[in-house]
Every structure is written in structure tokens, then in C-alpha cells.
Amino acid sequence: MEKIVIVGGVAAGATAAAKLRRMSPTAQITMLEAGPDISFANCGLPYYIGGDIKSRSKLILQSPESFKEQYNVDVHTHTIVTVIDREAHQIKARDTRSGDLKTYEYDKLILAQGGRPIKPELPGADYEHVFTLWTLEDMDKIAHFINDNKPRTAVVVGGGFIGLEMVEALVKRGLSVNVVEMMPHVMGVMEAETAGFIETEMLSYGVGIHTGAGVTEIQPRSVKLNNGKQLEADMVLLSIGVRPTLQLAKEAGLELGEAGGLLVNEYMQTSDPDIYAAGDMVEIEHRINGKKVRIPLAGPANRQGRIAAENALGGKHSYKGSIGTSIVRVFEAVAGTTGLSLKQARALGIDADAIVVHKEHHTAYYPGAEQVTVMVVYDKATGVILGGQTAGYAGADRRLDVIATAAAAKLTVSDLADIDYAYSPPLGTANDAINMAAFTAENKMSGFSPSVTTSELDAFVEGKNPVYIDVRDIFAYEKSHVMGAMHIPLEILPEKLSSIPANRPVIVYDETGKKGHQALRTLIGAGFEDVTNISGGHASLQRQGRAVGFKNLKIDLLPLEEKSLEKEKAQKTEEKVETKQKVDETSTLIVDVRTPEEFRGGAVPEAINIPLDELMNRYQELGENAGREIIVYCASGARSAYAQRMLMQMGYNNVKNGGGLHSMMQRARTAAQPKQETKSVSNEPLIVDVRSSYEFASGAYPGAINIDLDELQSRVNELGSKDRDITLYCASGARSAYAQRMLQQMGFKNVKNGGGLMHMMMRR
Questions:
Q1: Which residue, of 48, 92, 353, 637, has the greatest Cβ tally within 10 A?
Q2: Which tens digits make up the pLDDT trace of 649-661?
Q3: What is the CATH number of domain 130-240?
């Protein structure tokens, strides 16, 4: 009868014991656990503290008694193994309650001791209000402390998975929370823009984030940081990493690996052929690069436990390694990573590249669509998937699993492009975000659509003095843009090509990267040679800027949305807009048939919002005058064309399709703009705005006249005397610099470049 002893009774150990019994009904199986509990759900501990899991018992998967009954395994808790006698095939263990020593014989030994949280040598680290979280006991101490002491403030030291899960848990318990992280951003295993998505969510809930900082001292009611700050802290959670439990293995003379874990081969066998090991204490092979790594995750630990058990009974089941797939949810935001990041791949000498796309997790027209972000990292030469990351409020987990599968199977971006993914309007899209990511990667690999990720942008623009072109609509541009960027909406880009400097590199961006690609192709088709799209567009710029910022460009961060756990989740109720009263039914009515979300982002002045889907039920809001002039518009003109047909079928006989938002705004602003009178020839100072009339109508310097750069040569007579003091400006100073040179070449002697509108207003 085979005697098998397992040291450790949680993830890997308990899984190994269960597998052993399923494979051998006769083996004598003994499991020794240092703590009081076995087979508990340690990944669920933060969710019990936060109140998501109501019952503590739900976290206890097995007890010593139930394990004995179900698997006939002898379980001894509170038992620490002190010695492994490899020659005698014996171990000695001590019961921590009674102090009794006992010897256990084994034919095969499985070590599954896991790890322990790192507790730094800090002044104050031993205070009663300082905790780590790894076991049920740890969880109970934290829960009791909160219940008994009613702390108001907390500091979480460490911005990894457990740290951020505990941030959420403590906020849910009513505490004001700060997180301190030594790395430049939280979730150091992720790219900065992915982490930026999580950081934005945390900041929205009032969490303080202190990155690039460390704790130097813990005091009774505060912590001191190495940057001079002091944070209030009625309680402190240390979550700075896990150290493998290796003392027993070291003393037994088992070989350790280069990554700091217990060395095992593909069969989970240590340097002693009769001793196997699994879980957080071992180092294994990274499936992508073949390097030895430690990956302390529950999924790999459970699989390693199964394989160790099978092989301890004579099997030859090999462990293929791990790719480190992991995911976190913080409040409503979800982000995950798998395989290698772009930085990791390049550090290993791989000629890697990456792209980012943002796309709805299901069809945009079905209610509840949320944007999901997909980043794919791949080998430039072969297109083989090396890893990736995802983020979003819905659908991030599903896409991460696809990338993980692709990386493990060494699929290429072309393989991903050709895969059919499950599609139904409530569940997905006809071209999934994964498809779109693969298409984007193919375009980049072929040179058809050069792009740069936000993590590469600083290095990419170093010494290049590029022209940035923002192709979004005026509302998006005014909220936030790259400082100095030319604003040329995609719709009018072909008309404005002459205003773009031809002798400088061009970087284009839109909101997500899609229209940026269209703009890039327009520019390349027009003869521009050095054009690059920002992968992920303005959405990625915002996240990168939020997490770590930029050195070589400046972008205003959008205001944070204030979120609160007390507020009920807003059901997306559509706001009805009151229409003009019957007395106004002879005037022209402008109807925006986009969604309420689109409408709130910016709309034509005086327009009312009736989404196309509601038009049939809300047509009474248009009034009873069938001959009234009604202009309908949307984002592009497609939905408004449909709305026009619907209304005409209902009997409205004076309905016009205004087309897209840009066209409508252009007409509205042109109509509203007073006709500029040419000033008489004089030597009075003159301020000239060389932006488009579209931009000018959105706001200009007081007293300025508007002459579009493209029209400057034909309208030069409006400037008067060539001795006149003329100040030129635009959005950033780029077009006005070009205009200055033009006028100087024409003989104007006193021409100054005032720079961007913002600079002009500040100097006013």
C-alpha cells in the first residue's frame, strides 16, 4: 500500500489529496496543515470583508472531518513539519497546540506549503491595527477589528491584486482609503494605460492613490511616506507580495531555482525523485518565453496539485507551464493580463509590437453596450501572440480568455482574425473586439496603418517635433486634447490638407483609434509620408496620462465622474426634453435622433433629443403643424435619413435630413457668424484668428477677425497696411507660425505669432 504524505492543505495540497484518492482507493494518504483550516477559498477573503459574501461558511470548502469522510484522507491541522529525513523517507511534525512530536513515513511526499505575505521591517509594523490577509484567521481579525473599533480611515500598502480588492472591501465598509504603491502605477504587472483605467475608477470612488512612494513608518493613527506625506490610518493593510515557504525544503537540501522558488521539473518532481511540489512555493516554466518564474495564482496551483498527485502514483503527466493569466475587479471596473506585456517581451530581446482597440462588448444598438479594451502583444516577424491585456465594465474576462488561449496555443494575429466568435446582439458583435484587434495588428504589420501605443509615445516623439491632428468633433476636442494639436474633424480633413505642414511627422488620433486609421489613410493617400496613428486614440491617452503622464506632450485629463456606493445604480433612463410650445410651431425645429449619451456629449444649439428608437412613440412632441420645417440629424446622417422617412410617412411634409453633427454645426455657426467688415486701411493693431470658421465660431479672442489659413493669401487685402501691427493666433501656434511666415514673405513688417488661443487669453 502506497504511503503518501502531503504537507499543506489549501489549494494545491487539497487538490492533490482528492486526486490521489480518485486514482487509488487503497493508498494511505496523510495531509498535514500548519494552520487551523484546510481547503478554504482564500481568493474570496476580501469579498467577505466587503460584505459581498455574507456567510463565512461559504468560504470553507472542506473540513478535516468532511475530507476524511469523502476522501478517506487523514488530516492533521495545527501541525508543522520540522524535518524531512529523505534517506529514511520520514518526516517529523509538531502539533502546535499540544507540542507533541510525531513521525510519518512516506513512499512519496508532496510539498504544497504555498507562501506567506511579506511583512516588511518597518517601525510600527507590529501594531494591533496593522494586518495582512492570507488566511481565514487573518480575515476574521480584520472583520472583528472593523466591527469593534469602527475605524474611519485606512491605508493599503501595495497596489496589486489583493491590495486593490481590499481597497474596494474597505470602502464598502465605510472607510476612507488611501493606497500606497512603490511602482509608478498600481497593478505593476499591467501596462500603464490598463492600470489607468483601474486608477480612474478608484479615484472616482474617492480613493487616494500614492504611487512611486513607500511607507517609512507606521504610527498609531497614521503612516509616513518617503515623499514626506503623512496619511491618516486607523488601520493598515500590508499587501506588498508573497514570499514562498521554503525553509523546510532548504533544510532538506532540495534544489532551489533561479527565480527564488523550489525547483521542479515538468512532472512537478523536485531534485529528490520521491518528493513532489506544487503551488506558490515552486517555480515553473513560463509558457511563452521558457524562463523560470514564480506565478502565485490559484488556477496554476490547483492544476499543479493534480499533476503532482498523478505522477506520485507513477504517472507521467507533464505540466506545460503557465502564462500568468490574472484579472481583477475594482468596484465596477475590470482589468486583466495574460502572457507577456510589451515591455516584458522587449526586455527579453523579442522584437515585439502591440496594438490597442476599444469596442462595444455587444452591439451598440442593443441597450447596455459598454466599451471593452483589448491590447494584443505579438511577435513582429511571425505575428505569434505573446500576450495581451483587457479592460472594461463588461466583457473584459471573455476577451482575456481568448488571448490567453491564443498565446498558449501560439496562434498568430491572422489566426485570431479568422476565428468566429459567438454573436448575438445582446452578447457580442459581428466583428468582435478580438477580431478588430487582429485586423488592426495585421494592418500595422503590413505597414498599411502605422501606429504607436501610448506607452511608446514619449520615446517615439523624442526629437521629432511632430504635428498632432485631432480628428474628433469640436465638443470632444474642447473637453480635452493634446496641447498644440491641430483640430481638423475627419469630415473636413480632405479640405484642410494644405494647412498641415508637409515637412514634419504627423500623428493623428480620434477617440478610439478607428477614425484615426481613416485619417491616416487619407493623409497617406494625399502624399504625406510620415504619418502615425495613436493606437487606442484619446481614450488610451487619457488612461496613460492618468497613470503615469507624459514627458514629451501635454494632455488635459477629463474630470473624474464622482461615484458613490450609496447611490443606486443608475438605470439608463432617457431624459425627455420639453419641446417648444404650440405658439412656436411655425419655427424651425431641430431634432437630434442620436442616443441620450451622444446628445449629452454635445449637440446643435436649440436641438431637442428624440432617439430614433423612440421617435414612433414620441412624435407628438414635434407639434401638430404638419408643414413645420423639421431638420433631423444624427452622427453621420444614416439614422436621420431613416427618421426623415418615418416622419414623412406620418404626414410631416417639410422634413429635411441635416446629416451628421459636424455638418449641422458648420451650418449653424456660419449662419450665426456676423459678416465681418473689412477694416479701413489703418495702422491700428489687428488680431487675426487663422483657425477655421468652425473653430472660430466655438470661441475666439475678443476683437479678432477670422481669416482661415487656407484663405489667407486670397484675403490678404483685408489686413490693410503692410506696416500694421498684426498678431496671429490659432489653436496651438502651429498654423499661426505658418501664417506669420506667409505674411512676412508678402512684405508685412510687423507680424507676430501670438501662439494658441489659450495663450492669447492668458496674456489678455
A1: 353
A2: 889 999 999 888 8
A3: 3.50.50.60
